[in-house]
């Protein structure tokens, strides 16, 4: 059924409504299906992280407290930031490194103007979409199979994330991670990124195995909509 819907949506476009990308109430209410499943996955992730990236998160939290850089949050939140970092690197690392010249600061400023000047939002969105496609996506977006070679590589990803406008909060968090890693030797950075990417890869497989039943048509939507969203400023969030 999923393949049939995808074929119709992609090639013939005869379906009035787009395929449903996710559905949380399979065979019952979401309270009896999705929430127990995601709770179970969360418990598994936290337990697995204790043997992998949580020790890194704990050291980072101590660093933040020592330098009073922010009101300390829970260890689980910093663990999540590491997981998210691994996922973002796999998704966009090679794309960010392929960018040689781009108006990063101007794009970030456009994101601010978009919020403070709502009347100009349609114009700004069109301009951001064009700049994003011309400068921030010089190569086809594909999975990054290698780890960042240096802290500078990771810094380029963070700069790219902020410029897109869709990952500004993520970029804000990782600026402090860059500061933390700048106090460590290169060997620590290499070992940390190895653990982070290994954990992200495990999470990708585990979440696919246990949660993909709730997102049956995501791949179909992405493949069918890539060209349609090419010039839009919200292409990554969509």
Kindly list the characteristics that best describe this protein.
238 residues, disordered N terminus, globular, mainly alpha
Describe what you observe in this structure.
It contains 10 helices and no strands. With 238 residues, the chain is mostly helical. Mean pLDDT is 85; it is low at 1-5 and 7-16.
Radius of gyration: 20 Å
Query: Helical percent range?
Result: 55-70%
SSE run:
HHHHHHHHHH
C-alpha geometry: globular
Q: How much of the sequence is in beta strands?
A: under 5%
Average of the residue pLDDT scores:
85
Distance between the termini: 24 Å
Tally of separate helices: 10
Major beta sheet summary: none
Unreliable spans: 1-5, 7-16
Beta-strand segment tally: 0
Structural class: mainly alpha
Per-chain topology:
Blueprint: H1 2-12, H2 34-50, H3 54-67, H4 75-98, H5 104-116, H6 121-136, H7 151-164, H8 168-181, H9 186-211, H10 218-225
Helix pairs in contact: 1-10, 2-9, 3-4, 4-7, 4-9, 5-6, 5-7, 7-8
Short description:
By secondary structure, this protein is mainly alpha-helical.
């Amino acid at each position: 059924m999923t393949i049939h819907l995808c074929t119709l949506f992609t090639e013939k476009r005869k379906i009035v409504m787009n395929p449903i990308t996710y559905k949380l109430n399979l065979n019952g209410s979401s309270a009896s299906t999705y929430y127990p499943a995601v709770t179970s996955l969360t418990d598994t992730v936290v337990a697995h992280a204790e043997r992998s990236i949580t020790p890194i998160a704990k050291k980072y939290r101590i660093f933040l407290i020592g330098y009073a850089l922010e009101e300390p949050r829970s260890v689980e939140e910093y663990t999540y930031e590491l997981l998210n970092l691994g996922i973002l690197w796999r998704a966009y690392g090679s794309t960010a490194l392929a960018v040689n010249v781009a108006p990063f600061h101007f794009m970030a400023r456009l994101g601010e103007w978009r919020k403070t000047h709502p009347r100009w939002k349609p114009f700004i969105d069109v301009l951001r979409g064009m700049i994003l496609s011309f400068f921030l996506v010089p190569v086809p977006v594909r999975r990054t199979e290698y780890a960042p070679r240096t802290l500078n590589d990771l810094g380029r990803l963070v700069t790219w994330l902020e410029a897109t406008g869709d990952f500004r909060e993520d970029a804000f968090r990782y600026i402090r991670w860059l500061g933390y890693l700048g106090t460590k030797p290169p060997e620590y950075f290499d070992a940390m990124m190895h653990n982070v990417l290994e954990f992200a890869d495990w999470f990708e497989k585990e979440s696919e195995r246990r949660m993909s039943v709730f997102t049956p048509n995501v791949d179909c939507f992405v493949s069918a909509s890539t060209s349609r969203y090419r010039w839009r400023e919200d292409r990554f969030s969509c």
